[in-house]
Amino acid sequence: MLPFFRRLFARPAAGPPPLADRLWAPLAELPILVGLDAAETLKLRQLAARFLTDKLIEPAGGMVLDDGIRARIAALCCLPILGLDDGWYAGWRTVIVYPGAFVRPRSQFDAIGVMHEWEDILGGEAWEQGPLVLSWADVEASGLCEGYNVAIHEMAHKLDLLNGPPDGFPPLHRDMKRREWSAVFSQAYQDFNARLDAGEDTALDPYAAQEPGEFFAVLSEYFFEWPELVMLEYPEVYQQLARFYRQDPAARLPPYPHPGAEPVLPAP
Ligand SMILES: [Zn+2]
């Protein structure tokens, strides 16, 4: 039933008016949104406006929110569902925004019963059926076509969580094959880990090697921010992501380096 309801709630005609011109104008300059055609732009503005209606964006840690900040968060969070619909972001309500990276205390018993305690410093966090947590400094560093996008990363986790743990296996469309997705991602993940183990200085963020769920989230960031790199390194992953997100960012973004982006490829 779920896909049916998703379609039912996806009718753009029933959606709120698109994001206002004054809020959209600065966002239209973001390198990651360059290349969207008129229909895609309208849909993203509608999705972002509905996101702002449906979700509660809450400040934390002294963050001061304004309409421009809320709009930028909404637009970046909605880019992954531009080819889908907002039913894919159902089941949770709150976005918590810190001014910068935030600290999460962690603890774990090891095999011999010794408690280990440490702190993780995070730019974003996605809770299962709970809030999405973002650092505004990291959101500001996103969308510049430099390969980093905390909003897309955390939203990829949210999509992944729709069918269980964040294992890099989100609910696939009917026209996709689970076995194909699994084979392509497993092979790429193992290859990436092997390259890091061999000491290679990879252009892709080594954080992707943490676990399959992180590989999916990090490759989703690159898919939207720097699609040529995914096409170059793991072309089959690019194809699977294009079929999942129903978007082809490599076709719409100007060739790398994108205008406004700092080239980070090593010199030849
Ligand atoms: Zn992650």
From TrEMBL:
Q: Which GO terms describe its cellular component?
A: cytosol
Superkingdom of the source species: Bacteria
Q: Which GO terms describe its molecular function?
A: aminopeptidase activity; metallopeptidase activity
Q: What would be one Pfam family of this protein?
A: Peptidase_M90
Q: Which residues form a coiled coil?
A: none
Matches recorded under InterPro entries: MetalloPept_cat_dom_sf (IPR024079), MtfA_fam (IPR010384), MtfA_N (IPR042252)
Which CDD domains is this protein grouped with?
A: Peptidase_M90_mtfA
Q: What is this protein called?
A: Zinc-dependent peptidase
Q: What is the organism of origin for this protein?
A: Methylomagnum ishizawai
- What are the leading ranks of the lineage? Bacteria, Pseudomonadati, Pseudomonadota, Gammaproteobacteria, Methylococcales
